Amino acid sequence: MSIKMWVRGWILLIALANLTACQHGMQPVAFHDDGYPSKLSDWHVVEARDGMLQMNQGVVPYELNTPLFTDYAHKLRTIWMPKSTSAKYNPTDTFDFPVGTIISKTFFYPLPKDGARHATDVARTYDTSRDFAGPGQGLELANIHLIETRLLVRRKDGWVAIPYVWNADQTDAMLARTGDVQALTLVGDDGERENFNYVVPDQSQCVSCHAHDWTTRALQPIGPKARHLNRSYPYADGDENELVHLTRVGYLTGAPAPADAPRNANWMDTHASFDARARAYLDINCGHCHNPKGAANTTGLTLDISTPEDRHIGICKPPTAAGQGTGDHLFDIVPGHPDDSIVPYRLGSAEPGTMMPEIGRSTVHKEGLALIKAWIAAQSGDCVVLH
Amino acid sequence: MRKIHILMALSLLLPACGHQENAAQSQNDASFESKLEQRLLDAKPGSVIDIPAGHYTLKRGLSLRTNGVTIRGAGMDKTVLSFKGQIVGPEGLLVNADDFTIENLAIEDTMGDALKINQGRNITIHGLRIEWTDGPKSTNGAYGLYPVKTQNVLVEDSVVIGASDAGIYVGQSNTIVVRRNRAEQNVAGIEIENSVNADVYDNTATKNTGGILVFNMPNLSQAGHATRVFHNKVFANNTANFARKGAAVASVPAGSGVVVNSNDKVEIFDNDVADNQTANVIISSYFSTNYYNKLGVAADYNPYPKGIYVYSNRFKGGGNSPDGLALKTLKAAVYGINGSFPDVLWDGYVDPKDQASSPSPDDRICIQDANGVLDADGPHGYKNPTTDTKPFQCSLPKLPPVALNPEPKV
């Protein structure tokens, strides 16, 4: 049996399974080609059932090598496509997804381990071991607090972003086109507490990041690119590279072997170079605006992965419109001098008008900031002013 | 008497609270905010979003992404959107859309820029008031009215007060009219940057650090040229520079009237320029900003102002108390302790290409009807300044007026 036939047979099996049984009693995934359904559960992508946030049949979870920082929230990302459709691989850009694709991203926090706590306390931790019920399974609701689920839906005329906010009972998430603000307290592994406003973006703010090109203003998913997905994921039937897995289940065509696909570093991987880690971090946190066509192409500063490591990425570059965001520093990056550089100054601020990214967080990502500082500290060169 | 005691006690308590908590938002304001946001989301081409008179406190920046929308208040002192205590920003209103009109309302105290229009054609801003109500502070938002990468832009009959960078800042745009505005107590009153074909007229710029600026910055999508600054009142722009270091305008000395930096084809005429204590007109190069360095500036960037034509202005006073030790020393050396800089100060940087052979006639700096020009000799640290006006006695072809197309309907 050729591989192609084997894949076809596999798809057939999945299709049959879809027909004969519902996953966890869920209705089949419903793609709405118009409007804004009032509840997340109207889509049947992820649902709170039996103490878990369950993923429906055909809903495939994925992670990114280096994710966007969102106030230390943990995230469950999923992708679903209609039967017999698949995305086309692209080595640099977002994959070309078929009409009907639904991408979901659920933002949640593990609960602090201590018994005594306030209802608005959430854990600040990188430990994900209590999040999932098991490999390839849904989230264990007893251990987490669900905040919001954002959907990106590929309709005939393009992608649409639809935000949902989880109710207090954690039974469903409700449409929140104008976003939400929730006062929460991060509780560190060491017990340290930090009050902050968790901000659910409004629908228009979704576009701020997802419109990769501010002239066409068309939305795009940011994560599903080869360099972010070229990594392993613990699926129910074992660990597998995400590009391989998506190809195997029929969701992706044209992908090369993982070794031949680009791969961003994991920003926390201490075996990788500062350079690779910092560039991956800047790519996912800044590159959606700071690219040649994005919202921040007014600044002359580009931070996506393809940017050469020169003035374009900020080396000795005078700021253009930073305003009070300069922090009295003269250049975006002064090699060897992170504390004289604007980029870490703005990453280290949580004040609107000063902080970068402009939206999407209310707290400072200490570990991310430390990485960028270390990266700049290791650079050489000088910004001697000419007269 | 008792009341006074209580007030005193309260006023003593206030500073002791330390970190200022964000003011609570009333139920009414919260519901106004979410309704307004919903209207912006639901707007269709042709929609008019009327905002009735009232003072509204908003916690989150607004945004609009639909073409052909008009936002209209009941007047710049009647409809007030206050962002004091804003928690989500950075702007007051961010627009990424064509055929946009906004008129007759006020935006106050935004953490970042008040109104930013990023990429759009046919933009009309009419009768707005933008204000940071605590006066000039470096923590104020950077820009008041900020169209960037826009085409066919009209900014008129508006007032901007307190921006920590530029009050009205049109950047990387084409075909621009800025008229009948008042810019006060900003670092830069009005700034045209990396823009092509701009007319700036009938404006009043006073009490800023610099009144009207025409700049070209490096590393951007286009180099600016062809700006006419005429029939403005630019007086007493002597507010100490309160921009944070690193910002382009942080290099502007307090007491600057009209400043051209590294831009080309700028015509300055028929203005009333008075009492700007560094100089009524400054013509300078990017070298004088102290940011020029080899690694950080694109090699094709041209830092030399070329084709600058200053004539028929009415100058009065000014130049008597320049900002900063270097300029004070220069003034004293050339004009004496009680003397003044002349109407026009030029930093003296010349394109090396033009030093060998004289510049092409259209690239010259021509100055008429001024009481003098000082070539400050910036390249040599002001060592050999000269006051000879002969090199500037020339004229340049006049620029055509800017014609907005289509004409705005306001």
UniProtKB/TrEMBL annotation, chain A:
Record keyword Signal present: yes
UniProt keyword annotation of Repeat present: no
Top-rank taxon, per record: Bacteria
Record SUPFAM superfamilies: Multiheme cytochromes
InterPro entries xref list: Multihaem_cyt_sf (IPR036280), SO_2930-like_C (IPR022269)
NCBIfam families the record matches: chp_HNE_0200 (TIGR03806)
Protein name per UniProt: Repeat protein (TIGR03806 family)
Species this chain originates from: Dyella nitratireducens
UniProtKB/TrEMBL annotation, chain B:
Top-rank taxon: Bacteria
Residue ranges constituting the Right handed beta helix domain according to the UniProt record: 96-216
Cross-referenced Pfam families: Beta_helix
Region (Disordered): 374-410
SUPFAM superfamilies, per the entry: Pectin lyase-like
Record's protein name: Right handed beta helix domain-containing protein
Organism listed in the record: Dyella nitratireducens
Lineage: Bacteria, Pseudomonadati, Pseudomonadota, Gammaproteobacteria, Lysobacterales
